[in-house]
Amino acid sequence: MISDGTAEDGPTFPIRTIYFESPSAFPEINSFTYETASKYGLKLDIIRLDFKSGLEALLKSEPIRAIFLGVRNGDPTAVGQEQFSPSSPGWPPFMRVNPILDWSYRDVWAFLLTCKVPYCSLYDKGYTSIGSIYDTVPNTLLCTGSSAEGEEHFKPAHRLLDGRMERAGRVKKIVPPVSSCFNTISNGVNSEDEHQHSTPVASIISVGDEILSGTAVDYLGPLLFRKLHEIGWVVSRSVAVQSDIDSVADEVERRKVDADMVFVYGGVGPLHSDVTLAGVAKAFGVRMAPHDAFNEYYMSLQGEQCTSNKDEKVQLPEGITELLHHEKLSVPLLKFQNVIVFSSSNVTELEEQWDCLLELSKSIGPLKVSEPFVYKHLATNLRDVEISKHLSKLSLQFPDIYVGGFRKSRSGPLVVNLEGKDPMRIELAAEALCKNFHPGAFTTII
């Protein structure tokens, strides 16, 4: 029995509790947490950092050997865990203790209601799984209708009949962006040019320890850059991550918010290091579950090699998996809302999968194909200090054109790069730049 900390109870033995306080948490969650800690005399360690950094700081200041968690099978973070599981690679070392790992949704509510355990008031308002204010809404399966004023009413969480739909309320809300920088190409100059606001933005994530260690060379990333450029997309970020579920999940979770589409490759397959799909599931807050349709493709592809593992079905992120079928592909492409995962292991396979994706886009539209980027490269032996002021002025004069520069070697010529979607505007920009210097100062590189 847990003491409520009153004098009549005699000596108290406060349970040390860790709470990660977030500015995106529901106010009701914060209130319930603090009130419960006070009622039961809990020693509450409040951490205002992200999970990994917070645990590192906590364990450094006060060593802890084990932490009790409320993880259950079906939770995204439960992938690969048992009742006692060491922390994931790359995280501070401690033992994860999961006493309710095998509990079902119904088990949890049976315990809370039978033992009269207090819980957050949000669960009486239709919320069945609570994350942040940006990705959590009441579960529509509990909706009882709307009032005359248009306000929806919901049954309490314990009335949900199918526990597998517990996370149906974990969806991405539409939040007005802080700025338009995610959907524009810019030289650091604000512009209301219609061109810029219509440019789709992509992020690319490669998964593989071999890439990070330099053991393998990544040829797929540069190919994707070119392919996206050819259909008018701009790549805002490309990153390589470890073959680790948490690393993949963290990166996918960040990129799926600020990019129109996220492309992921590497780490897809039956090996222990193939964690990409589990990482995607965790990023979206869903569990991994067998997918019968995809399993048929996979078994057909593997043939006799799978006869010894007939009962081991392929698992994919539940509820968000979309199979993109194409007659030229032996296995469909995988799409999870605005995340597309390529199973390519080399350039030839990626070329084939990309071409099929573009063909599918003509009918079912996973990708928006817009005007391709065009460019002009001008080489010059002018010194950087001679040209820098004029390039800055050119950026202001032509905000719809990307103006950049690079050298293939320190002693080689400077190459000025002009990129945009209007060939005429690029020619005008090139002429405007050349007028500032003597004839022959620039040569065009084909």
UniProtKB/TrEMBL annotation:
Residues 203-336 form the MoaB/Mog domain. The keyword ATP-binding applies. It catalyses: FMN + ATP + H(+) = FAD + diphosphate. Pathway: Cofactor biosynthesis; FAD biosynthesis; FAD from FMN: step 1/1. CDD domains: FAD_synthase (cd23948). InterPro entries: MoaB/Mog-like_dom_sf, MoaB/Mog_dom, PAPS_reduct_dom, Rossmann-like_a/b/a_fold. Its EC number is 2.7.7.2. GO terms for biological process: FAD biosynthetic process. Keywords: ATP-binding, FAD, Flavoprotein, FMN, Nucleotide-binding, Nucleotidyltransferase, Transferase. Pfam families: MoCF_biosynth, PAPS_reduct. The keyword ATP-binding applies. GO terms for molecular function: ATP binding; FMN adenylyltransferase activity. This is FAD synthase. It comes from Kalanchoe fedtschenkoi (Lavender scallops). The lineage of its organism: Eukaryota, Viridiplantae, Streptophyta, Embryophyta, Tracheophyta.
